[in-house]
From TrEMBL:
Repeat as UniProt keyword: yes
Pfam families, per the entry: C1_2
UniProt keyword terms in alphabetical order: Repeat
Name of the protein this chain belongs to: Uncharacterized protein LOC107486817
SUPFAM superfamilies: Cysteine-rich domain
Domain named DC1: residues: 26-70
Record-linked InterPro entries: C1-like_sf, DC1
Keyword Repeat: yes
């Protein structure tokens, strides 16, 4: 899959750095960490699972930043722009201007790091999460022996394949930007992020339970002469990993959406990726 973008947002200048220092933000150096289990970014306060920068000091609380948020704070003095808002200049802020403020891309509340365009006579300003500012605009993918494109669109052309809506709330406020396939299927950025992070969290939770049970079983076997206990085992682990979803997304589309929103799926463990694909399509 070609993960190139019409505007090189996601290939930040820090993607080759193993360690970074963010003065005034965190006292310790942060280490580059590949994609994996879901986490909550201490910068923008949004969830993520892609590449991140984490503090590994033993006595630290485990400070973590999205790669995009780390890049934003390292280059905080540099203004940013976005193709959807031509001529507008966005400045980096550690906190939003007033509350509540909502990201003009995903429509989720802004609680931390944000790119802000000052208010004018026409509006109260624009806000974009660092990750939303960096969303790829085009992702090419191969399907049915044809090269197709996943395109980021500001105006939702049709109902989202996940939430089945174009808008939400009684006031009709837009759900936010969406990705549209060459075949016209639409997925809100916010909907996909929520669904994917929930399923990935289920996968890692299930994995922890399995490991814990294996360790427990090994302890019992090592400390008794009984060996395996006959009969039924403990009740099956209750997890939404085993539950079927009503929505099905073709693996190639799933991978393209992941690449556009979170980064290269190759960086995610193969086992985890295969499990997530299964979760979306069983």
């Amino acid at each position: 899959m070609d993960s190139s973008s019409s505007s090189s947002h996601r290939g930040s200048s820090i993607n080759e750095e193993k360690h970074i220092v963010v003065p005034g933000i965190h006292e310790h150096a942060l280490m580059s960490t590949p994609a994996g289990a879901p986490y909550s970014c201490d910068g923008c306060k949004e969830g993520g699972c892609g590449r991140s920068y984490r503090c590994e000091e033993k006595n630290c609380s485990g400070y973590v930043l999205h790669e995009e948020c780390a890049s934003a704070v390292l280059h905080r003095e540099n203004p940013e722009s976005h193709p959807f808002f031509k001529g507008e200049v966005f400045a980096f802020l550690e906190k939003p201007i007033g509350h509540p403020r909502f990201c003009d891309a995903c429509r989720m509340e802004v609680k931390g790091f944000v790119y802000y365009r000052e208010e004018t006579k026409k509006d109260t300003g624009l806000d974009l999460h660092p990750c939303c500012l960096k969303l790829r605009h085009n992702i090419s993918y191969e399907e049915s022996i044809a090269t197709k494109t996943l395109t980021l669109q500001q105006n939702v052309p049709k109902k989202c394949g996940l939430c089945k809506r174009k808008k939400f709330g009684d006031d009709g406020e837009p759900k936010g930007w969406s990705y549209v396939t060459s075949d016209g299927d639409c997925y809100h950025v916010s909907c996909f992020k929520k669904w994917f992070l929930e399923k990935l969290s289920d996968y890692f939770s299930e994995k922890k339970v399995v490991v814990s049970k294996m360790q427990s079983n090994n302890t019992v076997e090592n400390n008794t002469k009984v060996g395996k206990v006959k009969g039924r085992s403990n009740s099956k682990v209750s997890s939404s990993v085993a539950k079927k979803m009503a929505v099905k997304i073709a693996p190639v589309i799933l991978k393209a959406l992941f690449a556009a929103i979170f980064g290269d799926p190759v960086s995610l463990a193969v086992a985890a990726w295969e499990a997530i694909v299964t979760l979306f399509n069983n």
